[in-house]
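Consider the following input, taken from an annotated entry for L-ascorbate metabolism protein UlaG, beta-lactamase superfamily (Halorientalis regularis).
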Amino acid sequence: MAAIQLLRHATLLFDLDDTTFLVDPMLSEPGGIPPIPNSPNDRENPRVDLPDVDLTYDAVLVTHRHRDHFDDAAADQLPADVPILCQPEEAEEFREDGFTDVRAVESTIAFEGTDVTRTPARHGHGELAEQMGPSSGYILDGSQTIYLAGDTVWYEAVSETVDAHDPDAVIVNAGAAQFVEGEPITMTPEEVGSVRETVADDVPVIADHMEAINHCLATRADLAAAVDGVAIPDDGERIEL
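Applying the prediction step yields:
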């Protein structure tokens, strides 16, 4: 059994068998985070409320520590002893935040019957991707295999991950996040279409990471108009996989 519930942006409750992961918690009140610098607009973040849901989970899975994926509110509100699964480069920062059970995912670790494998991600193009710092995706493998692509553009490692792991579902961060200069740093509608074309027709592709942060310029409507066969959940919506 697997299901995801989108809270907002990239914050998910992800159920796999008997384990629930809280993914990329951004828990601030609307307007609690300043606009992303060097963006095409100056709207404060998050732009939408956090749905009223039961935040019950067994572990926290963080793709990277940009503040729209792990914010100060999450650092303050999450229990100090909650297991945090993260990139090796960021493990010490979580410990400095006071978390006592930080588990760096070098390649694959087991958690409560789920194998968690870190996968490559490229958070932008060219020099901008280097400036954005490391970002990761994850394969979660239990009774089903789910690919959380994380903050990445479409490039060869995404298709290689699909080929290597043959996932039962793929979750992509869309929104075409962009600065004033340079290309988008998360998937555009066209790149989500490339994911859709790469996986088998019966494999769900689910897109999040839209309409909550000021520099995510592609909307749900933009994506729905550009690509067929992609699930685009509303905030608070749960999808059984």
